[in-house]
Every structure is written in C-alpha cells, then in structure tokens.
C-alpha cells in the first residue's frame, strides 16, 4: 500500500471524523456563504472564489458517495444529515443577506447560476473524480479546494437564497437544478472512484444488490442529465442566433449609425434603430429579404429610422448613444469569440 494514501480502514475513520456536525464548521460555512453572497451581489469573481475555498460543502457529498459505494449506511446517514444542515444554514444566511441588501438587481454572476447545461455535468463528474483521489491522500494538496472552485457548490445556493428573498421563481428552479447537478455527479464520481480503489464492502451484499445499486445510480444520472442536455442545446442555439444577428446588423447597415438592436425571443422580432439616410420601402424590403442569408428566416425585422439626431432631446440622445456604445462593445466581444474559435 502506498504510504502517501490512506488504506481502507484509515480512510473510513477519516470520513467519519469529517462528518461530525461542529459549531466551528457551521460558523465557517456561514462566513463563506455570506462572502459568496456579497461577491455575487457585487459581481466580484475573486470574492466568490475566496468563499468557495473555505466552504465545507464538499465533505458530506464525498461522504455519501463513499458510503454508498462500500454499503456503509452509517456514513450515508451521517453525511446526508450534515449536508441537509449545511444546505439549510446556507439558504437561511443567503436569504437574510439578500433580504436586507440594498442591491436588488440580479448581477451577471447570479444569472450565470440559473441556466445549467451538460457542461456543468461534465465539470461536476470530473471534479468528483479528482476530489475522491485528493481526499485519499494523507498529505494536504490543492486538489479538493480546486474541485470546490470548479464545481461551484456555494454560488447556486446563494442564488437560491436570492430567488427566495426576491420571489423570483425562475431563478429558484435554475439554481436549485445546478446545485443538484453538482452534488449528484460529485457523489456518483466518488462512488465509481471508490469502486476502482477496490475498498472492501463494509456490509457484504449479493451481486444482485450490487447491480440494483448500479441501476439506481444510472437512473439518477439520466434524470439529472437529460434536462441539462436540452438546456445546453438552447444555449448553443441562442449563441448562434446572437452571432448571426450581430453579423446581419453589421453587414446590412454599413453606412448607418446603429443606435440600438433589440431581439425578442418570444415574438422572434428584431428591432433595429438606426440614424442616417432615410431608407425607402424597397431598401427596407431588400434588407428584410436578406435575413434568410444569415439563418434568420424566422425572424421578423422592424427598422426604426431616426434620420436626424437633432430631433432627439438630450435624455433620448443619451439613451440611444449609451445603447450604441454597448452594442459596439458586444459586437467586438462576438468578433473576438469568433477569432478564438477559428
């Protein structure tokens, strides 16, 4: 046996000692969830990463996976209880924070935790594999903290707290699903990893019971994965459509100042606000006919023409100019992504 790794008995004792509900760990968790909530609220990635580094949420999930793998249901019960307590504490702290925070809008970091995809499944599973390997090592490593950052267990819980505080049900569903994805696939990866380590079963089970456990985990995996595949497909389609719209506006209105472009996904309507020479009906029809060349044949185009910027008052001019600057920045971002992809 490698001296740098725990043997089966030592690892079991380590897992059991880590699954004790301690006041100190609860205080650390409360601090971590508060820091993460502030980071999400202020859109600060470094603060969010710092919170994930000190979060103890990985421990009970690894414990559940280990306990199921060796049929040690004492560990499964202790880990499940600890996870329940930590989730409740996290939600209470996050909900209280967002209830009193003066910043009530959803930052981009919050919104990013509401649309999980199949890539989150891949990250959680590979992170779980790395996590169980790191947890078995006797020497301290950066593997488990790295997994905690990659799989991001804490931000989804903070986002659930935000959705409860602000009564935004759609955010609640998306963030809860992301937390379930991360937790389930870290647990499944741990289960598989422990089986590969060939730890002896704590309770001897028949091959039939082993197969039953495997089938249950496969069914659980499918139930969790399938919605994320549809979410990923939707995300890809939206990305392609956004890129196509940006290209369409850039190429079809080269001599105009595009003050705003707004696409409504529900109505599939694109409204482009431009300033420049007045476009005739035939010119407008020609531009509308060109939508199909960009894969936007299902999109309805509405061109809002403002021939003279002097017709706008100060507030309207500022509003359109701000949108114009924002659109230019978005177009540059899309171009950079396209160059990176090529």
UniProtKB/TrEMBL annotation:
It holds the Pfam family DUF389. Keywords: Membrane, Transmembrane, Transmembrane helix. The keyword Electron transport does not apply. The chain crosses the membrane at residues 19-39, 45-68, 80-98, 118-135, 147-165, 171-194, 215-236. The keyword Transmembrane helix applies. This is DUF389 domain-containing protein.
